[in-house]
């Protein structure tokens, strides 16, 4: 063979050897990764698990009410597996801060717990609204009312052209709950919460929230609100306190009803509401629409008829 041909064959053999060496190195690396001990894999998984629980969040050691100031004894840092929006990881961020909502024991402390919320909304029962009426010392039982009292609402009006030259005095609603009086608001624990958030002496509190109060907030049924607002515009409203003995007898009647007339009602009847509007405005409200039921085989159709 010629020398040139031998050189070409030798060069090809060298190139082939290099490629085979590269391929063999890659195969050996893949085999070593597959044969890694199971213990190393488990260790890696354990490290990832520990990393997931590495964060610590502040939780409440005890149940705390709105208005309480957080101390170091009230909270603790614990490992927590989930991310919680608005949570805290540093004690210094919430120490001496005032809660604006109730926090249960074991609950994660959140930024929303320190945001001011509605003063009246948490105290209103379903189907009712908080309605404020103007009062003075005479119309508010001498200014001695307190949130949580039960009152009757009395309407009075002197004879005038607006009242068709008729004097009127009528009890509109009975057993109405007083939600707020002056700057005091009823709380679930029956204590009084002052709007400024500070305790005051009894004399100063009476001056600011008692006899000098100009408004009382009542819990009124939704359907009775137009009647109360009309009455306030047409005359004067007085609040008469219901005594404890009457309250006790009312609760007994509600538990063992023997006579429906003995139970105090929080609502006006349709007849009383109609009579009051007619007496105050001189207008007779339109009667409620009547319903006619049309039966056709197994189906029933309701048709509302208005006069």
Automatic annotation (TrEMBL):
<dbReference type="Pfam" id="PF08666">
    <property type="entry name" value="SAF"/>
</dbReference>
<feature type="domain" description="SAF">
    <location>
        <begin position="55"/>
        <end position="115"/>
    </location>
</feature>
<feature type="region of interest" description="Disordered">
    <location>
        <begin position="249"/>
        <end position="269"/>
    </location>
</feature>
<protein>
    <submittedName>
        <fullName>Flp pilus assembly protein CpaB</fullName>
    </submittedName>
</protein>
<feature type="compositionally biased region" description="Polar residues">
    <location>
        <begin position="251"/>
        <end position="266"/>
    </location>
</feature>
<dbReference type="InterPro" id="IPR017592">
    <property type="entry name" value="Pilus_assmbl_Flp-typ_CpaB"/>
</dbReference>
<dbReference type="InterPro" id="IPR013974">
    <property type="entry name" value="SAF"/>
</dbReference>
<dbReference type="InterPro" id="IPR031571">
    <property type="entry name" value="RcpC_dom"/>
</dbReference>
<dbReference type="Pfam" id="PF16976">
    <property type="entry name" value="RcpC"/>
</dbReference>
């Amino acid at each position: 063979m010629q020398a040139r041909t031998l050189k070409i064959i030798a060069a090809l053999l060298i190139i082939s050897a290099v490629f085979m060496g590269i391929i063999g190195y890659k195969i050996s690396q893949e085999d070593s990764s597959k044969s890694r001990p199971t213990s190393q894999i488990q260790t890696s998984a354990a490290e990832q698990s520990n990393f997931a629980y590495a964060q610590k969040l502040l939780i409440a050691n005890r149940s705390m009410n709105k208005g309480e100031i957080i101390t170091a004894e009230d909270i603790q840092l614990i490992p927590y597996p989930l991310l919680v929006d608005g949570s805290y990881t540093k004690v210094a961020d919430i120490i001496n801060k005032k809660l604006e909502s109730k926090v249960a024991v074991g609950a994660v402390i959140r930024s929303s717990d320190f945001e001011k919320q509605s003063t009246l909304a948490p105290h209103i029962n379903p189907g009712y609204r908080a309605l404020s009426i103007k009062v003075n010392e005479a119309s508010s039982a001498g200014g001695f009312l307190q949130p949580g009292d039960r009152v009757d609402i009395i309407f009075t009006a002197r004879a005038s052209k607006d009242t068709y030259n008729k004097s009127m005095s009528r009890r509109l609603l009975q057993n109405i709950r007083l939600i707020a009086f002056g700057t005091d608001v009823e709380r679930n624990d029956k204590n009084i919460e002052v709007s400024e958030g500070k305790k005051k002496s009894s004399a100063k509190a009476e001056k600011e929230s008692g006899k000098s109060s100009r408004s009382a907030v009542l819990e009124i049924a939704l359907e009775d609100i137009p009647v109360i607002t009309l009455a306030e515009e047409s005359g004067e409203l007085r609040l008469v306190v219901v005594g404890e003995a009457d309250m006790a007898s009312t609760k007994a009647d509600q538990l063992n009803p023997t006579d429906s007339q003995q139970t105090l009602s929080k609502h006006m009847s349709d007849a009383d509401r109609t009579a009051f509007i007619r007496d105050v405005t001189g207008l007779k409200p339109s009667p409620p629409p009547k319903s006619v039921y049309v039966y056709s085989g197994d189906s029933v159709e309701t048709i509302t008829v208005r006069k």
